[in-house]
Amino acid sequence: MGAEKPNSTSVLQHIEAGLNVLNQLCIGFVTFWICWNCLRVGLTGIRLHVWLVSFGFVFLMAESMMCFYNANWLTLRYTRKRKTAIHVVLQLLGGGMGVAGCLVQLIRDDWSISVTVHARLGFAAFILCLVALLSGISAVLARSLSRIVSPLANKTFHVILSLGTFVTAMLAQFYGYTQTGIFKGQGQDFVIFMQVVTLIAMVLTCIAPFKSLYHKYVSFTS
């Protein structure tokens, strides 16, 4: 019985590593295709919005959320301090681009929000992202603020907010493929394929923050 535990752990680690590779492929494909599709025509009109939110949320924010994930081969060999630095930079850039993309579209629409699911989710992601960025600053200063709030509670709140922002943004991306009209002419099958790949990337990226929340829950209860 004692020999089975390390073996099962090793199998789980290999599965997680394989899923991480699949996730990186999904993120890379969505990011590359959208960037190419927008840049080849020009970042004018709605394409600037699409490029900013896609590169910001789908790529940069997803990568920032996986910085501390042990199965992430991109950051596996880095120290905790370096991972933190990469996480902060990626989240600031990703969140900044996402917020900028939402602002671009709000300005184009004269600060009105359409009734589509994509628009409502996008606006929700915009608000959540602003709050998540502020909570990120609080998480970085967790030790300095320890007299006001415990570092564990501070960082847990940040993880939950970031997770909520990412999931909301990815769902907005999912509906955006069909509700913005920018991808007309690509073919229905390809649009569905993009939606499936986006959902896979969302689910697999969420493994890292859910594991982080689980470990924080164990720390809370122990």
Automatic annotation (TrEMBL):
Family annotation (CDD domains): Cyt_b561
Domain Cytochrome b561: 18-213
Keywords, alphabetical: Electron transport, Heme, Iron, Membrane, Metal-binding, Transmembrane, Transmembrane helix, Transport
Entry keyword annotation includes ATP-binding: no
GO cellular component term, pick one: membrane
Enzyme class: translocase
SMART domains to which the protein is assigned, alphabetical: B561 (SM00665)
Positions of transmembrane segments: 21-43, 49-72, 84-107, 119-145, 157-178, 190-210
Major place of residence: membrane
Pfam families: Cytochrom_B561
Signal peptide: none
Keyword Iron appears in the UniProt entry: yes
Annotated membrane topology: Multi-pass membrane protein
Molecular-function annotations in GO: metal ion binding; transmembrane ascorbate ferrireductase activity; transmembrane monodehydroascorbate reductase activity
Superkingdom, taxonomy of origin: Eukaryota
Cofactor dependency: heme b
EC number: 7.2.1.3
Listed InterPro entries: CYB561D1/2 (IPR045150), Cyt_b561/ferric_Rdtase_TM (IPR006593)
Location relative to the cell: Membrane
Classification via PANTHER family: ASCORBATE FERRIREDUCTASE (TRANSMEMBRANE) (PTHR15422:SF43), OS05G0565100 PROTEIN (PTHR15422)
Record-given protein name: ascorbate ferrireductase (transmembrane)
Species per Swiss-Prot/TrEMBL record: Drosophila rubida
Lineage, opening ranks: Eukaryota, Metazoa, Ecdysozoa, Arthropoda, Hexapoda
